[in-house]
Amino acid sequence: MQRELSLTPSQRVQVDSLLGESKERTKKIWESANEEHRKVQENVRAVLTPDQQKKFEESFKRGPHKPGDGRSKEEGRTNEDHRSRGTSDPPMIVPRQPASSEKL
User: Which of 11, 63, 69, 100 gives the lowest tally of CB atoms within 10 Å of its CB?
Assistant: First the structure.
């Protein structure tokens, strides 16, 4: 980014600081969201029959999105997917822009 924007040394320090602060805040948000997801999974398991629990567990073992499983690509991603890109940080989620043929 420094080269693309031709940042001055002072600007680089400021931008690096802002990005570092944001990373820390985002990390806390993801940790909280992961904990909530874990709790929901436990609560769902508690109401399922043993056969349903097995299917529920298998759905998580499948990993990333498989055609026809009803999950979006983002919903199917795991931390392993992030690590394979060279980072343990989750991707930034950017709202999808409607195609020109879609109605708003």
Answer: 100
